[in-house]
């Protein structure tokens, strides 16, 4: 991808992120947490390395 394309894509994604309401972010976060908790490796892990 060309640098100009990368830059414009990054700007678009940042703009969309900034325009997303906090309530929508909370809803999406809850959905992701539910999906992650269903993953066998995550569910049975004793530690989660960060």
How does this structure look, described?
There is one protein chain. With 50 residues, the protein is mostly helical. It has a domain at 22-50. It is 76% helix and 0% strand. The longest helix has 17 residues, at 3-19. The chain starts with a helix and ends in a 7-residue tail after the last helix.
List the helices and strands and how they pair.
Blueprint: H1 3-19, H2 22-38, H3 40-43
Mean pLDDT: 88
Question: What is the H/E order?
Answer: HHH
The percentage of residues in β strands lies in: under 5%
Radius of gyration computed on alpha carbons = 16 Å
General shape: elongated
Largest sheet: none
Q: Roughly how much helix do the residues carry, as a percent range?
A: over 70%
Q: Ranges with pLDDT <50 over ≥5 residues?
A: none
Briefly note the structural class of the backbone: mainly alpha
Number of strands: 0
Helix segment tally: 3
Distance between the termini: 30 Å
What's this model, at a glance?
The protein is an all-alpha fold. 76% of the residues lie in helices and 0% in strands. The longest helix is centred in the first third of the chain and has 17 residues, at 3-19.
